[in-house]
Amino acid sequence: MKKRVDVFNLSIYELVIFSKVLRHVDGAVSDLFD
Length: 34
Fold this sequence. Notes:
The protein is built from one helix and no strands. It has one helix at 2-32. The mean pLDDT is 91.
């Protein structure tokens, strides 16, 4: 059971990091084409 929780937390963590990176890249691209 513990392992399943760890995997669940890890995927949420990766999702948060991914969205932050995506937002950063999106901002950089917007600056490029501004």
